[in-house]
Write a structure and sequence with these properties.
Blueprint (H helix, E strand, L loop, with lengths): L1 E4 L2 E4 L10 H5 L2 E9 L2 E2 L2 H14 L8 H14 L5 E8 L18 E8 L7 H5 L1 E7 L14 H12 L4 E6 L2 E5 L3 E6 L2 E4 L10 H12 L3 E4 L4 H5 L3 E6 L3 E8 L2 E2 L7 H17 L2
Parallel strand pairs: 7-8, 7-14, 11-12
Antiparallel strand pairs: 1-2, 1-6, 3-4, 3-5, 5-6, 8-9, 10-11, 10-13, 13-14, 14-15
Bound molecules: pyridoxal-5'-phosphate.
Length: 284
């Protein structure tokens, strides 16, 4: 694989980052994941805009602009021959060569890393046909979940807890209400209404979420942006999650409680289809 590190395209075995990098020592960095379908980038502008926001919220300078980022993404997709897959991007605050809680000087170079992951058939994963099963866990993350930082240990622990119970993912709960999945936004369907938590610092502002809600409204579906409880979720007609890597993924079971008849519901299936169709058309 060819990866990108600080201005250079290198074989993955030759790419290096300092042991003092603040991304490594303090999880002081942000990331984005953009999917690739048919060799084209899905929702690139949304990811580029959120990246700028994440950097700004952490007082990190925005040094790479949209066009340069797009060029790097495309170059990696081409060099690695990616038909379907993902482009991962991470920017950290870098380091001035020591470990210090205090940030390095403003002009310290950031560390910029991008790599690709090839996922043939990403859009027709068997999981989407079967739906996924989730468990609930308390949301023990920090209070700025709107910033896409690389502090992913707790979500990773949640995923492991789900696997230990033979499930696929975990929904995180705060004050009895669902915040989001470990790496996706969470939704339930009650009657003909799609319910998902409103935007705030409690959740990541999903790029897929924004697109899916827009498509749902355009298709005259009813959308309610409000927090919902775990009990409401277990009693819902259907549920699903969204993310750049899974698009719209039906949820068929929560804490052992089957939703509806235990198979992906019509709303989730329809939204997945619309999302994939529209996103492919708009891919760049
Ligand atoms: N919520 C969390 C915690 C995430 O980590 C992610 C994606 O990684 C999402 C939501 C979905 O965001 P997006 O649709 O931009 O991929």
């Amino acid at each position: 694989r060819t990866v990108y590190v600080n201005g250079e395209y290198l074989p993955e075995t030759e790419a290096t980052v300092s042991v003092f990098d603040r991304g490594f020592l303090f999880a002081d960095g942000v990331y984005e994941v953009t999917s690739v379908l048919g060799g084209k980038l899905i929702d690139f502008d949304g990811h580029a805009a959120r990246l700028e926001r994440s950097l700004t919220e952490l007082d990190m300078a925005v040094r790479l602009h949209r066009d340069e980022l797009l060029e790097i993404h495309r170059e990696l997709v081409t060099r690695n021959d990616i038909e379907d897959g993902l482009v991962y991007l991470q920017i950290t605050r870098g380091s001035d060569g020591d470990r210090d809680f205090v940030y390095p000087a403003e002009d310290t170079p950031q560390t910029v890393v991008l790599f690709t992951q090839s996922k043939p058939g990403l859009a027709d994963s068997p999981a989407a046909k079967k739906g996924i099963r989730v468990i609930s866990i308390p949301d023990l993350r920090w209070d700025r979940r709107d910033i896409k930082t690389v502090q992913l240990l707790y979500p990773s622990m949640g995923k492991m807890a789900a696997k230990a119970e033979g499930c696929d993912d975990a929904w995180m709960i705060e004050d009895g209400k669902v915040t989001e999945g470990t790496s996706n936004n969470a939704y339930i369907v009650q009657g003909n209404s799609i319910v998902t938590r409103e935007l705030s610092t409690d959740i990541l502002h999903g790029i897929t979420r924004a697109a899916v809600l827009r498509f749902a409204r355009e298709a005259q579906m009813q959308v309610e942006e409000r927090a919902f409880t775990l009990d409401e979720a277990k009693a819902a007609d259907e549920a699903f999650v969204t993310s750049a890597s899974t698009f719209v993924m039906p949820v068929v079971e929560i804490d052992g409680v089957a939703l509806g008849d235990g198979t992906p519901g019509p709303v989730a299936r329809r939204l997945r289809e619309i999302y994939l169709d529209e996103s492919r058309k708009a891919a760049i």
